[in-house]
Target: Peptidase M16
Amino acid sequence: MTKRRLALTMTSFEQGQVHQMRIHVMPTKRFKTFAIALYIGVPLEESTVTEVALTPFALRRGTETYPETIQFRERLDDLYGAGFGFDVLKRGDYQIVQFRMDIINDAFVASEQSLLQQSFAFLGEVLTKPALKQNKYRDKYVDAEKETLRKRLDSIVNDKIRYAAERCIEEMCKNEPYRLHPLGKREDIEGITSESLVKHYEKWLQSANMDLYVVGDTSLEEVQKLVEQSFQLQRSKEVNYELKAPTRQSRDVQTIVEKLDVGQGKLNMGLRTSITYGDDQYAAALMYNGILGGYPHSKLFVNVREKASLAYYASSRFDGHKGICTIQSGIEIENYEKAVEIIRQQLDSMKTGTISDLELTQTKAMISNHVRELGDSAFEMIGYDFNRQLSGKNRPASQLLEQIENVTIADIQAAAQTFELDTIYYLRDRKGE
Model:
């Protein structure tokens, strides 16, 4: 099993270009379906972040051929229940809309016309021929999707774990695009109209990075022809992601305390590092995060939650496109000082290289298993390769596995020296006001 998965992760994508859109195709008979993913990325900007977020919500309501939402959904049913969806993501300082389609291979159904061709026709129309009325989106669609977006943003505030995580980033990166949520700002939604959204959409098509991925029993040549036929794009120039060095702050650790009606404290911390996805120390940074708080055997979970009984949850996450590591924990209100102290102790232990052989081997196993399992999912392989496109660093999964296996405690200690605590954010109750 391990060898099979490893071989799969070593498979590469063939690359081409049509309409200033980068095409990435992995021909394989491994899956019974075609996986299609279209990434459309623009820089995070306060003036456009909400319009970008709302655009895919509007596009999913209908197309020129299927202007009514029920027709749109019935068309997917006609394609043997094809899956269609989207996400709005933040990767470093970029806001990325990802459209996905999952459709069965023609070899397994009795279809008169190629399902892959029909899928491309559908996706191309979603992107380039939306359901317009008098050169604007239908008001009823925009109004409904504005409410959908508003509820999505409200749900973050209502989920205090997510809210604290977002607020920590906002305070940590208050002068950087990264502070913005990929779904935009609630206060901007009301001012968006059907007319303004269409104007923004037209600029978005021209200025965005576009990367189309396909995994399945096809070829680069076939996909390029289908894109030519299905995507009515008139793009004047190729757009590329621009890499930015991680921002380092020359300031003391800032502490932000916010009071709301909560029964449990949310203690979040933000750290900055010079290591990003394209760095040679990336594998060591992954190991750093894994040992610190990435898994149930990690230092935060064991020492803060289990041994000291100070937290209901305690973990860490590493954004390799931004060079930021965040720590999340839920604590009793009165345990703030103790929790901060013991979390700082874990950060210090990473810098001194106080890492056991068990922590090292368990973390290597967890990360390596995750990388190997990428080969079992077409969309996971697509997501992994998109890291290459976004960062400019070609690191095959097989190479990452080898790098993880060769990481030493000294390597992790060296990486730890680059992780510096920047922000402490604490969400607590209103007592004492």
In short: The domain at 10-230 is CATH 3.30.830.10 (Cytochrome Bc1 Complex; Chain A, domain 1). The first strand starts at residue 14 and ends at 18. The radius of gyration is 23 Å. The chain has a mean pLDDT of 93.
